[in-house]
Amino acid sequence: MFLSKRTNGYYYIFYDDDSGKRQAVSTKSKLRSEALKFLTQFRKESNHKSKEEILQINFKQFILIHIKAVLTIKTTLHI
Question: Which of 13, 41, 43, 63 is buried deepest, with most CB atoms within 10 A?
Answer without folding.
Answer: 13
